[in-house]
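#struct-pred
JK: can someone run the complex with zinc ion? inputs below
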Amino acid sequence: MPEYAIGVDLGGTNLKAAAIASSGEMLDRTNATTDLTEGPERVVDDIVACIESLRDRFAGSRLAGAGIGVPGFIRMAEGFIVGSHNLPPLNNYPIRDAIEKRLGTQVFLENDANAAALGEKWMGAGRDVEDLVLLTLGTGIGGGVISRGRVMHGFVGMAAELGHITVVPNGNPCGCGNRGCVEKHASATAIESMANLLALGQNLSAKDVYDLAVAGEERARAIFKTMGQCLGIAIASLINIFNYPLYLMSGGVLAAWDYFYPALLDEVRWRSFTFRNTNTRIEKALLGSEAGLYGAAYLPVQAQLTTRH
Ligand SMILES: [Zn+2]
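RT: done, structure tokens with the ligand placed:
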């Protein structure tokens, strides 16, 4: 049996884990729910149980380690999460070391969008490049930057919080303390808020707004145009900063690509000399909600490759 690693995607309600071979082949997976009501030890118990159930199935193979993607700001040196709205009991809890001690294998903690970006680099839309940026469009907007094949961390581990780039001065207030963050103007939640403001219907989901756009509702189309403009402003800045070859987006909102991408492209063309003069690609990510599992599993694999060379 081949060497493998285990990737974990820890969300506020769901816990997903996968055993992935060092070659990138998905071997097996498991799911559980995240119980946050009984404190951090209980969450650690659940994660360890998930990882052990996979490890038991591959008892004859060598485990390279485990990677855990979590929503929130990470302090890499300490191995804990700060400022996570989805996992409040885990804030400032030494989750990496607690899991490592229980498992007896090396454990890596990573922001979930960073992990997704690494997953796309390893086995997804970014396989042919060494440098890329990923924006995950969901209830918020997550970001990951891959530089020379590795996650860009910054000096603490909080780099690439791309959802909090300001795109509207004095725009909508954000939980981070800022106003006008791109995630408040271009996420699925932002689309729903705009539909509410325009009184398009009662409690419409982003999918409902998309269906209205398809049906020809001009105000729904205007919402996606606004969203595309805001995303475009953010992406133009990223292109101007990084001059990377590839900018990826993921999330259910991509279904509305044809309604937001033209406005996005207009902004990027206008605002970025680099974009107009290079073969820069802006594309859909390929791995969907599995990207984080691939990236988390790749962390121990990549660490070994570095040690060996
Ligand atoms: Zn913000």
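RT: quick notes.
The mean pLDDT is 95.
The domain at 4-112+289-308 is CATH 3.30.420.40 (Nucleotidyltransferase; domain 5).
JK: thanks, will look after standup
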